[in-house]
Each structure stands twice: as structure tokens, then as C-alpha cells.
């Protein structure tokens, strides 16, 4: 067994080559970074393929779009998990998210509590994907990890836990193999998350729903799709092929990222 020091620069997901006692890190396919509360940037995991964005009722608006853009920038395939589908109120949320995202990213609807809807997600992960879940506190990420990898046995939050900090005593990142071939990384400090901020350019080129519509696609480099003449995104909004609420969300996020520069 070769021990790896925390300061070695290796992160969960790294591939290494071991010769005797010498450990050499192999080049990374992808790198996922996060921002901590003080603004510091940390590498979360290497060689991930997919980013699972977990949402439930009352998830903050804009969260999914920001996470999709971040994933695409990091060359991870994003997907959306709508959790707690056993709750009646979730059906309206699910219908809305399906309207918005189906066609751009996979959308899975499930209940970890009732163990329903897990199979399509398991099949997706078992296509050889290595992934990580992100989402705001309380959306059900620990419950989902427990349902997908029963041997993990994570502590699931209770309502009384939501009064402050320090719920996760463990800070060790672990890679869990699913029985069908997929892999999930559990990174406690990342679960609540700050993804590294996205730029206006990244937002305008990766915003979900602005992908190619047949022949139409904005072909201008660095187009912000706001006032530029003959921008295809603006045209698609006029034609009703990009819904008004999606364009408004885009403009809201665009102002936000421009203001934070
Ligand atoms: N009704 C219902 N409740 C759920 C489901 N999954 C999780 N919950 C509840 O939601 C609460 C939060 O669940 P967690 O799994 O701890 O959520 P989390 O996203 O890991 O939360 P953090 O660790 O704070 O980031 C708990 O009270 C769970 O019992 C579900 O499928 N249905
Ligand atoms: Zn444009």
C-alpha cells in the first residue's frame, strides 16, 4: 500500500502510476473546482465525467443553470436530479424542469425515501460514468447516495440539524463503485457548494436551451445575446423558440456575472 499525503497535490479520482515507492500522477482528463466561503479556490476531484445537480422544492432559482454552465466549462456532462418526488408538490416543479431542460440535459425524477425512480439514474451512471452530486443543503443528496450505494451509510439530516454549521464531521473524499460499473465521489465539503464563478463568456456559450436549433445558432464569438444585431438567440426569442422566461433568466445571470467582475 502506498500512502498519499494530503499535501501531495493528488485529489480523489486521480490516476497514478506506481513504480516501487514512487508515485506519479497521470494527466487529468477533467478537473472540478470549487470556491470556499472566503473565496479560495480548491480542486474537488479529478477525472469526473458527469455532474449531478440535485434539486427539490425551494431550491434557489438560477442554481441549475449556473451548475450546468460550470459543468460544461469543466467538460463534465451535467444532469438534473429532481428528488423527493414522493411529495405531491414536486410534480409541478418536475413538469417545469422537464419543459426547460429535456433536450439539453438528462432529467431524472426519483424519491430516495420510497426508492422509486432510481433505475434510470443507475443505468445512466453505469454507462461507465464517474460523477458527483451537488445541490443546496437539504435537497436529499446524502439520502440519494445512501440509496445508490447502500454501503456508504451517510448521516441524513433531520430538521433540527439545519441550525448552523458543522454537520459534516468527515472531510475525507471517497470514491464509491456502483455494482453496475459507475462511480460516485462523495466530497462532504463540496456538497453545499460554491462552484467556481462563471464568466459572461462562459454563460453566453453554455446556457442551457441556447444550443443549436436546427440551422440556427448564434455564430458570433463572445456574443452576449443582448443587443447584438443578427444574434440568433435574440431571433429565436422573437420567434418563440426560446421561451421568454428562459431568456429573462439568462439576462438576470448575465447581469450578475458582469457585476461581479
Ligand atoms: N419526502 C422525502 N424526503 C426526503 C427524501 N430524501 C431526503 N429527504 C429528507 O430531506 C432531508 C434532507 O436530506 P439529506 O439527504 O440529508 O439532504 P442533503 O442534501 O444531503 O443535505 P446536506 O447534507 O445538508 O447538504 C431529510 O430530512 C431527509 O429525510 C425523499 O426522497 N423524500
Ligand atoms: Zn448571440
UniProtKB/TrEMBL annotation:
InterPro entries: G_CP_dom (IPR030378), P-loop_NTPase (IPR027417), Ribosome_biogen_GTPase_RsgA (IPR004881), RsgA_GTPase_dom (IPR010914). Binds 1 zinc ion per subunit. The keyword Membrane does not apply. GTP binds at residues 83-86, 135-143. GO terms for biological process: ribosomal small subunit biogenesis. PROSITE patterns: ENGC_GTPASE, G_CP. It is found in: Cytoplasm. Residues 46-191 form the EngC GTPase domain. Zn(2+) binds at residues 218, 223, 225, 231. Its cofactor is Zn(2+). Residues 37-193 form the CP-type G domain. One of its GO terms (cellular component) is cytoplasm. GO terms for molecular function: GTP binding; GTPase activity; metal ion binding; rRNA binding. Its EC number is 3.6.1.-. One of several proteins that assist in the late maturation steps of the functional core of the 30S ribosomal subunit. Helps release RbfA from mature subunits. May play a role in the assembly of ribosomal proteins into the subunit. Circularly permuted GTPase that catalyzes slow GTP hydrolysis, GTPase activity is stimulated by the 30S ribosomal subunit. This is Small ribosomal subunit biogenesis GTPase RsgA. The gene is rsgA.
